[in-house]
Amino acid sequence: MLDVAVARARILENLKTCGQEIVPLSHACGRVLAQPVHARTANPPVSVSAMDGYAAKAEDALEGAVLHIVDEVPAGHPSAVTVQKGECVRLFTGAQIPAGADTVIIQENVQREGDHAKLAAPARQGQYIRQQGQDFQKNDTLLPAGRRLGPRDIGLAAAGGHVWLTVSRRPRVGILATGDEIILPGDPAPTDGIFNSASFMVAALLQQQGAETIMLPIARDNMESLTTQFHQAATLDMLVSIGGASVGDYDLVRPALAEIGLQQDFWKIAMRPGKPLMFGQLGNTPVIGLPGNPVAAMVCSIVFVTPALHALMGLPVGTELQTEPAILGCDVKENDTRQDFLRATLAPSPQGAVPVATPFSRQDSAQLNILKQSQALVIRAPFAPAQKAGMPCQIIRLP
């Protein structure tokens, strides 16, 4: 059985991004930048007032001084005058600083009488002025390639003058459930029918992470049905099958894929849940075969499928699991040859530094209700010794 870290590295080794497309700024949130974003203009483009007040020369802005008001300037309407000694210009927040002025006296410190302004407090040079380019200059790199765009990034790109962004294309990921016992939710259920929870759960995870998912028709436990559905891989950026990859007489996923040309890289991982995981290449399409139990399918999707998706999207991905420290909330027994991913709840620790992770006593890979109640996976290395409550551990937070 292959080590988890080695399996992740093998999956990620040769994955390439899915190409680029140009999208409007209003549809770019959540996408991954394929090209850096440079400022088309400085921000602010000119020096502007940060407050409502009066623009003047700092040398004139003395307590008790009386200045002659020579113009009034709202935002978006620059003044044509040049401020001379003993003069000021009434202006409002966002208005361009007129030529000759180098300070702003806020209106709270001015008593206006007709076209004269009497200063109740002095003002220093540069006060309440947002200097041209204070935020960024023209041609500055605002956003690097490979960044997943959030709302603040969208705002920054807009401030830089962009209405279109070049992003990585969303990977088209096919989700294929297999098995004679699998039925769609809502369909009439035979006594031994199992509703197809795993496909919907995995698809939801991958959609959340940025994929365009395609739910393929359920493949039945015969070669004709399986090979028919696997031929759909030619139109996909990645194919994820669920079930049928173990060692039973009706686990036909691997033989069916081999029949149509799968170049299998590996099969079986030293992890629990998720031992019968398969990876290979079908033409240009990477194929990940997940276990059929829904919890195992979800855990393997977090550990293997999500990083593969991120690589296809152009995000930087490491081969090591991204974990964080926690404290065990209960005793755990010694581990065997497989790396464990234990479903656990999280709670604040008395010290407040790291959370307390308490694994459930039952870890059956078909129990979705326990998965729903979990907030994290506690990771235990192969052959890890027994540990007592209060000892340190590593976790992955569940999405």
From TrEMBL:
Keywords (A to Z) from UniProt: Magnesium, Metal-binding, Molybdenum, Molybdenum cofactor biosynthesis, Transferase
Catalytic activities: adenylyl-molybdopterin + molybdate = Mo-molybdopterin + AMP + H(+)
Lineage: superkingdom: Bacteria
Pfam family, one: MoCF_biosynth
InterPro entries found in the cross-reference section: MoaB/Mog-like_dom_sf, MoaB/Mog_dom, MoCF_biosynth_CS, MoeA-like, MoeA_C_domain_IV_sf, MoeA_linker/N, MoeA_linker/N_sf
Enzyme Commission number: 2.10.1.1
The protein's enzyme class: transferase
UniProt pathway annotation: Cofactor biosynthesis; molybdopterin biosynthesis
Family according to the record: Belongs to the MoeA family.
NCBIfam families: Glp_gephyrin
Descriptive protein name: Molybdopterin molybdenumtransferase
